[in-house]
Amino acid sequence: MKPISYGRQSIAQEDIDAVVETLKSEYLTQGPQIKEFEEKFAKYVDTKYAVAVANGTVALHLCAMALDVQPGDKWLTTPITFAASANCIKYCGGEIEFVDIDPETYCIDIDKIEQKLISAPAGTYKGIIPVDFAGYPVDIEKIYAVAKKYDLKIIEDACHAPGGYFIDSKEINQKCGNSRFADLAIFSFHPVKHIATGEGGMVTTNDKELYDKLCLYRTHGITKDENLMDENHGGWYYEMVELGYNYRLSDMQAALGISQLKRAAEGVSQRQKIADSYTKAFSEIEEIQTPVVPKNVSHAYHLYVIQVDDRKGLYEHLREAKIFSQVHYIPVHTMPYYKKQGWKKGDMPVAEAYYKKCLSLPMFPTLSNEEQQYVINKVIEFVSK
Ligand SMILES: *Cc1c(COP(=O)(O)O)cnc(C)c1O
Q: Could you say which of 197, 232, 261 is where a domain stops?
């Protein structure tokens, strides 16, 4: 058996052809593939605008800039996420406060958000960054209702969930990152995620004004738009009107993204099939806690997370069998950087209890039946020892 990692990209011949085609074209960066990728991605997640960027982390930074995060502004996020979800507010000088997770969904606990908002003076908090953890669509409709009441902005970190959705209270299908209940949403195209472009990311929104800001900040704050410029000296002329960055995606990467997108929906159903097999195989085994998925939710399964008491033992047992499971995540508030800001172990009891037991098993569309059975056997072999 070949080594099996927890996640892995799938690159088909058509992907390779698409990139080679772009290499032979006029443009390597800022060419026609970017626009096409943005339009097709927007359609895939059911939103109006999409802005392709260099990675998911800068997507978050651009969101914080577009929503005008100022020094001292306080935003809320979950401790069970990749650090970048929190860091984007720090980039702009703002402050992050963590809110504990829901023990069933592993996403931010919405009741705890509300408790925090009720007990703080009006205007204390400026925004929330919910995460569709592991591919579970966070109940963003409910978060939106709370955020409206307290005048908070929302950036949905949908890195784990392109293709996931939930049925809302009006029976409408809401795709993760569609920005119906958020100001902005973001995605990553890192190879362990659903769609791989090497490095890459996307911001989505339904708001034209935010869209324009994202485009401006993505490319140095430079514009050729007459309406934004003080002067115009001719065809060559541009003005730098804001302090922006070079956060662009290249045309080669966009070509890969377009090609990958064609198989994205199929990839999600494959992931769901794999998840069903795991859940079925472990259903009778008391020592293993499998994900809870309500009927109105279509989980995108970036990760398949189980909880077991001897997590370290299982991790090592699998490693010996060349199965490279992983832990998602070490709670962000216990990172030394955030500890320096006053956070400590014990602050987020549900997240910390979850962290002690969680393990992400191999989950990617090209995982074969044989490989999956091997993983299942090794897991069961360990827990029933
Ligand atoms: C991967 C990831 C990011 C960052 O994306 P990069 O493309 O690696 O910068 C942000 N948030 C979450 C939840 C992620 O999983």
A: 261
Give residue 159 CA to ligand 1 midpoint distance, Å: 6
Q: Is the pLDDT of residue 385 over 90?
A: no
pTM above 0.85, yes or no: yes
Is residue 134 pLDDT above 90, yes or no?
A: yes
Domain that holds residue 326: 264-383
Q: What is the pLDDT of residue 355?
A: 98
User: Does 1 have pLDDT greater than 90?
Assistant: no
Is 57's C-beta closer than 6 angstroms to any atom of ligand 1?
Answer: yes
From ligand 1's centre to the CA of 197, what distance in Å? 13
pLDDT tens per residue across span 312-354: 999 999 999 999 999 999 999 999 999 999 999 999 999 999 9
Instruction: Please check whether residues 184 and 302 belong to one and the same domain.
Output: no
Q: Which atom of ligand 1 is nearest to the CA of 131?
A: 13
Q: Are residues 88 and 156 in the same domain?
A: yes
CA of 77 relative to ligand 1 center, distance in Å: 14
If you average pLDDT over residues 301-314, what whole number do you get? 98
Does residue 84 line the site of ligand 1, with CB under 6 A? yes
Same domain, 256 and 335: no
Is the Cβ atom of 82 under 6 angstroms away from ligand 1? yes
Which atom number of ligand 1 is nearest to the Cα of residue 199?
7
The tokens for 8 are 């892995």
CATH number of the domain at 49, please. 3.40.640.10
Ligand 1 proximity of 15 Cβ (cutoff 6 Å): no
Q: Which CB contacts under 8 angstroms, 24+ apart, belong to 373-381?
A: 374/1, 374/4, 374/321, 374/323, 375/4, 375/318, 375/323, 376/277, 376/278, 376/281, 376/282, 378/317, 378/318, 378/321, 378/323, 379/282, 379/288, 379/306, 379/314, 379/318, 380/281, 380/282, 380/285, 381/317
Confirm or reject: Cβ of 81 under 6 Å from ligand 1: yes
Domain boundary (232, 261, 290) is at 261
